[in-house]
Write a structure and sequence with these properties.
Blueprint lengths: L6 H9 L8 H22 L8 E5 L5 E3 H15 L4 E6 L6 E2 L9 E9 L10 E9 L19 E9 L3 E6 L5 E6 L4 E6 L10 E3 L10 H10 L11 E2 L5 H11 L2 E4 L10 E2 H14 L3 E3 L16 E2 L1 E4 L1 H12 L3
Parallel strand pairs: 3-5, 11-12, 11-13
Antiparallel strand pairs: 1-2, 3-4, 5-6, 6-7, 7-8, 8-9, 9-10, 13-17, 14-16, 15-17
Helix pairs in contact: 1-2, 2-3, 4-7
The structure holds 2,5-anhydro-1,6-di-O-phosphono-D-mannitol and magnesium ion.
The site of 2,5-anhydro-1,6-di-O-phosphono-D-mannitol (AHM) has 11 residues, from strand 5.
Length: 333
Amino acid sequence: MIPTQTLSRFIHSKRRLYPDSTGELSDLLVSISVGMKYISQMVATAGFKGLHGYTGKTNSHGEETRMLDEEADEVLVELLSSSRHFGLLVSEERDSVIETEAANGEGKYVLAFDPLDGSSNIGSNIPTGTIFCILRKKDLSKPASHDDFLQPGSRIVAAGYSVYGAKTSFVYSTGTGVHGFTLDPSLGEFVLTDENIRIPRNGSIYSVNEGNTCYWSERVRAFVDKLKEPTAAGEAPYSGRYVGSLVADFDRTLRKGGIFLYPTDSRRPSGRLRLLYECMPLAFIAEQAGGLAINGPHDVLSLIPGDIHERSAFIAGSEQEVRVYRKLVHGIE
Ligand code: AHM
Ligand code: MG
């Protein structure tokens, strides 16, 4: 069968629904997807090229950086800064915002990304991925500024992620549903495989790093313990699944339902994951697919980052499980 709906065709067909659109956003999404194809290839061949190891440097968060993290970052920065649509970029791998060729005013958007999420899994043949979100500048008549990143997720214009696993997939939303594509390696094209993904209203899988149990609050412990008990009606307990790559755990949760949680704990009182380029984009996708994403008491999309690398708790998935979490752990209906 000839795949008729490639990513670029699909994006351009959606654009035709909005006669006033300039096509910039469509171009941007296509550029990002090209970066993902590069990174997917790099991840697949990193073992032969000796790219699995560390660079010997640490980033501003005190984490050791890996060669693949750095390479993936460079691919995206190079591709996207020349696109002229983004005023500034933020990457997990760089301390401060990155100026592009369009920084002086031309670019309407700013982009934040995690170039290679789950990189602790590099070398283990476990999925990794890329996560991004695009925000419109606060004031289009002015050059992009650091402040343009400090906007709530409710102002995201597009977000998405790729997963580099047994297949390479690309999932995105521009605020009109969530669409999923799979890379056909023989064509080098992303092909539409999952139009309008909807997260099930509830599920049977929970996903959390249980090695952190000793740091959790009593309430988080009680919530997770409850998932592991049969229900009063005799239904089986939830199954546990934790890959340790957020993109992979989130993607499974999106498709199968259930709950992913990385709560605050006594060791990480601000949470572990990054608000701007991990939690906000995935919260946007979760909500567009009919699910929920919270930091505990609040919806992730209502939070305004105080800093580009701010951390957050992240609890996302099916509406039912996330609501139960918020009620049991925070007493909020
Ligand atoms: P990274 O962006 O440096 O890879 O870190 C984020 C990753 C997520 O992919 C994953 O959910 C989490 O860290 C795993 O953390 P932990 O090892 O504490 O369970
Ligand atoms: Mg990450």
